[in-house]
Specification:
alpha/beta; Dna Ligase, domain 1; D-amino Acid Aminotransferase, Chain A, domain 1; eight-stranded mixed beta sheet; eight-stranded parallel barrel; elongated; binds adenosine-5'-diphosphate; binds magnesium ion; Pyruvate, phosphate dikinase; nucleotide-binding
């Protein structure tokens, strides 16, 4: 079986074999674009390598030799030939692009002899030595495992001794000296000389690229983006072209549209007289691509044409790498460009309007997970801001947090629950865990296509790059901006949309939907079958949900209403009451408050259904913490002239708290079990709901209350509660003279309810699957304990494919859901069914809900747009 393909033998369809980079290089070669020739070693070869215990087979080596011979014939150069050396790059290239996560080696084929040949051939010794030192550096780092900074330090020392600041100021002789020191370093670090045989260099580079599939950052990246671990990477071996040959050469990266906003303009950066990774690495801050139009107008024009062609060919925004060698343009890579959610939405909608793609494609182009970004908060435009500095607006959104200067601290602090802003001169792939942990990223060097910018955009994190006013002192962990000194732990804010660095914490405001976003969501509404509701327990959330397109409230929890500061004492009175009269007195005080809550929500949801869940959590959640109480009581006891009545009160309270203590509150006295033992509590809530309905009905507000009984496991529980609700509803309707249509349903959140759904449906007008509790009770995991104790390891060790509290376990919990729907509808064919767990806002779970035939999903207000899109994708 063939394991090596010359570029002209492949095409874009062969992505899984050739990797994204290889497939596109092949496709561009076929299309006649100026791509330096080369060949691709397949992902299968990578898998063979791992299967053979990290060995390259003889057969593969043979195929590589043959492809190399072809490449030599094509280029008229020869690997290792001093009079006309072929130099190649050895580039990683996975099926799904993982920018910067794996390794690439440039200028391979150089050694002590060929470098002299290159110098003579080009008449440019400085260039030749520059290439050679780059090669030793990259090979040393990637293949020999010598720390990058050791090489950098040698260069710094030479620059210092010459009294120069920038690399281009170093002469041929200087680079020669650098090379000598590099070779010494290699000898010291590895115990052998730098490998001189180009064939050996190539073999080892291929192995290193295969190995880089499993380097730590690539593994983390794959986990983050849910890319399978067994795909392997391809390796591209390609003739080098040189952007570092002088001022008529250069290298750059450009997007066919702005990846941050989606605006339709060529967007990118370039560096004159530079090679490869200089742009991405953030070592020098590059110039915007528009300036290429002035400096190399012909090249700019040609590049513009090619980029248009590529965009049309792939029907998607492209991210293109190019190099100019002595006035000639080469294209080195093209791929679908990573973009912010903002840009994704705008590009998808624009491309439909430009006739490049259809609506269906547009809907599939935007990842619902990514939408969270747009739905992020931003800096309040009316806030008083102290702007410290301005950098490049590399990834939009606002973030506030404590400053940290390294990725490890970022991760550590974030694990402790702190919000951090990662501040670095530039980031490298080694910092990825810090970027994941941080709220936002701020760098002093590098451009819009630097590592920090690309990674942050991919994750939807706010990011500012190239903020050159920052003087970062990593040693002292200080940041100097003008006269302001910011130390590790100080508060800082960044606005990635404007590039502003702000002192302290700044007020953030809720997001709004852009015009394009509305359009896309309207297209989504045309195709989706699932309705989308929101979980909201106050008028503000209800209004927000409605603005985002919610078609009702799927879960209005009533316990939050009990937890407001001024109500807690009354709620406690209610709980601590010794007699029914005492309890009723407290409930009577709560009634008008609870009524007001519903009035506000009903007004906001005028015309739409509202599902209200009666009190669910165990009562002790409203009581003080037992340990705090003990401390207070002890203090009172030890103070000689303390208030005896106060002490008695606290002691009483302690007794009650102890009496209510449960070993397993999650499985304890909660949900409808409360309503059955203390019907007066549910009666008060139902009264508040119906009184509120009659009030707003008189204002002309249309309300459709749906009363939901939580945690039913046996039909008799629902039967009792239904009777209670109907009685109170009847009373209120008689008192007010307003007739109110309503329904009564239940949550299906313990397995027994799903198993006996046919019986339960006799008493229910609707089912709402509470998949948070259903997941807890099906797995027998206590959510609060499991996540910290073992669940992460379970997912890491692949014992579970996903955290079932985030992505619905379709095989187990999902089976109960499907069974519940089916059994319920056997009893009541038009039984309304929905889901109100957090899964209702997660795309894969939404796909499941669609397939299971639910009527609606309900999720947090900010996730409503995401759910609308995910529901559409499920239907396509
Ligand atoms: P990554 O996947 O990290 O982007 P690449 O394989 O694309 O890595 O290589 C990084 C950079 O190296 C490219 O952007 C390009 O500028 C440079 N490069 C790669 N191959 C060549 C080549 N054949 N000639 C000149 N430069 C190259
Ligand atoms: Mg690249
Ligand atoms: Mg529940």
């Amino acid at each position: 079986e063939k394991r090596v393909y010359l570029f002209h033998e492949g095409n874009a369809q062969m992505r899984s074999l050739l990797g994204g980079k290889g497939a596109n290089l092949a496709e561009m070669t076929r299309a006649g674009l100026p791509v330096p020739p080369g060949f691709t070693i397949t992902t299968e070869a990578c898998n063979d390598y791992y299967a053979a215990g990290k060995q390259l087979s003889e057969q593969l080596l043979d195929e590589i030799r043959k492809a190399l011979a072809e490449l030599e014939a094509q280029t008229g150069k020869k690997l290792g030939n001093p009079s006309n050396p072929l130099l190649v790059s050895v580039r990683s290239g996975a099926v799904y692009s993982m920018p910067g996560m794996m390794d690439t080696i440039l200028n391979l084929g150089l050694n002590d002899e060929t470098v002299e040949g290159l110098a003579q051939l080009t008449g440019n010794p400085r260039f030749a030595y520059d290439c050679y030192r780059r090669f030793i550096q990259m090979f040393g780092d990637v293949v020999l495992g010598i720390d990058h900074y050791r090489f950098e330090r040698i260069i710094e020392n030479v620059k210092e001794s010459r009294g120069v600041k920038h690399d281009p100021e170093l002469s041929a002789e200087d680079w020669k000296q650098v090379i000598a020191s590099f070779q010494k370093l290699v000898q010291e670090q590895t115990g052998s000389a730098f490998p001189q045989d180009p064939q050996e260099q190539l073999r080892r580079a291929v192995i290193a690229v295969f190995d880089s599939w499993n380097n730590q950052r690539a593994v983390i990246y794959r986990k983050l983006h849910k890319i399978p671990d067994d795909l392997g990477t391809a390796v591209n071996v390609q003739m080098m072209v040189f952007g570092n040959m002088g001022d008529d050469s250069g290298t750059g990266v450009a997007f066919t549209r702005n990846p941050s906003t989606g605006e339709k303009t060529l967007y990118g950066e370039f560096l004159i007289n530079a090679q490869g990774e200089d742009v991405v690495a953030g070592i020098r801050t590059p110039q915007p691509i528009a300036q290429l139009a002035e400096q190399m107008p012909e090249i700019y024009k040609q590049f513009q044409e090619i980029s248009q062609r590529l965009e049309h060919h792939y029907r998607d925004m492209q991210d293109i790498e190019f190099t100019v060698e002595r006035g000639k343009l080469f294209i080195l890579q093209t791929r679908a460009g990573k973009r912010t959610a903002h840009a994704a939405v705008r590009i998808a909608v624009d491309m439909v309007q430009e006739g490049i793609i259809d609506k269906k494609t547009a809907l599939l182009r935007v990842d619902p997970d990514q939408l969270n970004q747009i739905l992020h908060r931003r800096v309040d435009p009316d806030a008083q801001l102290e702007v410290l500095a301005k950098g490049l607006p590399a990834s939009p959104g606002a973030a506030s947090g404590q400053v940290v200067f390294d990725a490890d601290t970022a991760e550590k602090w974030a694990n402790d629950g702190r919000r951090v802003i990662l501040v670095r001169p530039e980031t490298t792939p080694e910092d990825i865990h810090g970027i994941i942990a941080a709220e936002g990223v701020l760098t002093s060097r590098g451009g819009m296509t630097s590592h920090a910018a690309v990674v942050a955009r991919g994750m939807g994190k706010p990011c500012i790059c190239g903020c050159e006013e920052l003087k970062i002192d990593l040693q002292r962990k200080e940041l100097h901006i003008g006269n302001t000194v910011i130390r590790q732990g100080d508060q800082l804010s960044i606005d990635g949309g404007t590039g502003k660095v702000l002192l302290g914490e700044v007020p953030l405001i809720d997001p709004e939907l852009s015009g394009e976003f509305q359009t896309l969501l309207e297209w989504a509404d045309e195709v989706r079958k699932l309705k989308v509701r929101a979980n909201a327990d106050n008028p503000h959330d209800a209004a927000k949900a409605r603005e985002f397109g919610a078609e009702g409230i799927g879960l209005c929890r009533t316990e939050h209403m009990f937890m407001e500061a001024d109500r807690v004492p009354i709620v406690q009175e209610m709980i601590l009451a010794e007699t029914l009269d005492e309890r009723q007195a407290a409930l009577n005080k709560l009634l008008p408050m609870q009524r007001e809550d519903f009035v506000g929500i009903f007004r906001a949801m005028d015309g739409l259904p509202v599902t209200i869940r009666l009190l669910d959590p165990p009562l002790h959640e409203f009581l003080p913490d037992i340990e705090e109480l003990l401390v207070e009581i002890t203090q009172l006891r030890m103070t000689p002239d303390s208030d005896k009545r106060e002490l008695l009160k606290k002691e009483n309270l302690l007794r009650k708290v102890r009496a209510l203590h449960e070993f397993n509150p999650m499985l304890g006295h909660r949900g409808c079990r409360l309503g059955i033992i203390h019907p007066e509590i549910y009666a008060m809530q139902v009264r508040a709901i119906f009184e509120a309905v009659s009030l707003v009905k008189k204002e002309g507000v249309d309300v459709q209350p749906e009363i939901m009984i939580p945690l039913v496991g046996h039909v008799n529980e629902l039967y009792e509660m239904r009777k209670l609700v109907e009685e109170v509803a009847e009373q209120v309707q008689q008192e007010t003279g307003v007739s109110i249509p309503f329904t009564i349903g239940t949550m299906i959140e313990v397995p027994r309810a799903a198993l006996t759904a046919d019986q339960i449906a006799k008493e229910a007008d609707f089912f709402s699957f509470g998949t948070n509790d259903l997941t807890q009770t099906t797995f027998g995991y206590s959510r609060d304990d499991a996540e910290g104790k073992f669940l992460h390891q379970y997912v890491d060790q692949k014992i579970l494919p996903d955290n079932p509290f985030i992505t619905l376990d379709t095989e187990g919990v999902g089976k109960l859901v499907s069974m519940g729907v089916q059994l319920g509808r056997e009893t009541k064919p038009d039984l309304k069914t929905g889901i109100c767990g957090e899964h209702g806002g997660e795309k894969r779970s939404i796909q499941f809900c669609h397939n299971a035939g639910l009527n609606y999903v309900s999720c947090s207000p900010f996730r409503v747009p995401l759910a609308r899109l995910a529901a559409a994708q499920a239907a396509l």
